Every structure is written in structure tokens, then in C-alpha cells.
Amino acid sequence: MALPQIVTRDAWLLARKELLAKEKAATRARDDLNAERRRLPMVEVDKEYVFEGPEGSASLLDLFDGRVQLVVYHFMFAPDWDAGCPSCSGFVDQIGHLSHLNARGTTLAAVSRAPLARITPFKARMGWTLPWFSSFGSDFNYDFHVTLDDSVMPISYNYRTPEEHREAGTSYYVEGEQPFELPGMSCFLRDGDRVFHTYSSYGRGGDTVGSTNSLLDLTALGRQEPWEKPEGRMTGLGAQAGSEGVRYHDEYEDGVGRTYDVGTDGGDRTAGAGRTR
Questions:
Q1: What's 4's DSSP letter?
Q2: Which of 160, 164, 169, 242 has its CA 20 to 30 A from that of 269?
């Protein structure tokens, strides 16, 4: 087993400070990258999708649960599987208390192609409370490129065609018996009853995601911190993600984070707009 080199405390401190400078540079670069993500344009989702949840049929708008943003975790669970993907399960195991995310106007939900009758017992076995919906019978998984079947539509994963994957050495993503499931995350924003797709990430794009802040970093509104760019995204959604805005998960006000629209015409029509901390 190759272990780290043994050195004196002074030598270790010197090496640690050199690494710290690189870590700080990486943090600043990540902030810049997150700002570019928030500047992405968005596409209106006008196709009707029907999901099945614990309370019956649901639309994509219903998945927001009254909040302004939705993050969908595309959980790999095919209709004929007895259990969900182990790696996807490991991801869900790492998710913290959802109240912190909800307080920032953001709902996290899992969506799988397996019927609800298979999802429900597996969810109970895992002890999860994350909202989880079945997209069985709809085009949702195909349209967002997490179920690949070229008899339904041309294959594309992580914004690459099969030929591009072969050239990049990642053909394992697109080769195999079809249909097959792959992981991903998709973010949506709503203005009243209008739903917009803002971002999707696939493959290793979800490697470092799981905490409240890392999930918010994928969204159009971000962490809703005053230092974030572009300016004007920090709307009054009820709570901000900075240290002053974080509370114990049982101390958030009822309904905080549930908003009706963000005003795509440039105005701020969010519930609680102008709220101070």
C-alpha cells in the first residue's frame, strides 16, 4: 500500500499552504462556473407528462409542490427491476434534511421509469422520505435522455452522440441491450403555470452533488446569496442559504419557500418578496 510521505510538521505546513492556494483558486473558479450556469437561457416545457405518485397522477408542475424551482434526480430503476440502482441509492442516502432546500423555494424529487408498485416497497425498505414519482408510460425519461432506446428516439447521453462517445472513449454509456437506464439531474423553474427547463447534468456531473448548497448551485436561482452573480437572482423566497439564513430544520416557518411565480417579465412576484432576515 502506497502511503503518504512522512515529513516534519514544518514541511507538512508548507505543503499544506501551497495546496490551500490551489484550493482557493479552485473555489473561485467554481464560483465563476456556477455563475455561468445561472446565466444559461431556459426552454419552456410545453409537453404534458403524467407521473404517478403516492397521491395519484401528477403533472410536472405538481412535482414543484408549490415551490418555484424543481430539481429532478433521474434515479435508475427500470420497470422490470426488483430494486433501484445501488449507486443511485447511495446518492439518496447522502441527501440531508430537505427543509433547508425547501426553504429556498426548491423541491427535490426522484423520478424513475419503474411503476410506483415497485418504487414504493423499495423506498420503504431504504427508509427514505424523498418525494419519488414514476414516469412509467410517459416520454419523460426519453426526452431527458436517461432512458436510451433508439427505437423511441436517437440516442444521446451527456450531450454526445454514440459516435462522439466512441471517439471520447466513453462508449460504455451508449452500448448495451436497449432500453437501458442512466443517471442524471434536471432543473426546472416555474412562472405561474409555465415550466422551464434550465439545466441537466449527466455522468460524473453528479459526483459532488448531494448537499443543500451543491444542489442549489445547479439551479437558475443558485444559493440566493448577495455575493452571487448575476445580480438580481436573490429574490425573497423566504430564506437565504447564508449562515444567517440557515435555521434548525424544525424552525422554518410553515410554507416558507412555497412561491407562485418569479416574474419572467422582469418583475418579482414571489411570495414573501422583500422579506428581511
A1: P
A2: 242
Distance CA 118, CA 51 (A): 14
Are 17 and 143 in a shared domain? no
Residue 173 structural domain: 44-216
Q: Is 85 helix (H, G, I), strand (E, B) or coil?
A: coil
- Each residue's pLDDT tens digit, 132-164: 999 999 999 999 999 999 999 998 999 999 999
Compute the distance between CA of residue 174 and CA of residue 165 in angstroms, rounded to an integer. Answer: 8
| 89 CB burial (10 A radius; 0-12, 13-18, 19+) | middle
Tally of domains in the chain:
2
Percent over 90 (pLDDT), the chain: 62
- In terms of domains, do 35 and 85 share one? no
Cβ–Cβ under 8 Å, residues 100 and 249:
yes
Tell me the pLDDT band of 49, cut-offs 50, 70 and 90: very high
Q: Are residues 15 and 116 in the same domain?
A: no
Query: Residue 255: what pLDDT?
Result: 67
Q: Decide if pLDDT at 242 tops 60.
A: no
Q: In the block, which residue shows the cell 410554507?
A: 255
Domain CATH number, residue 158: 3.40.30.10
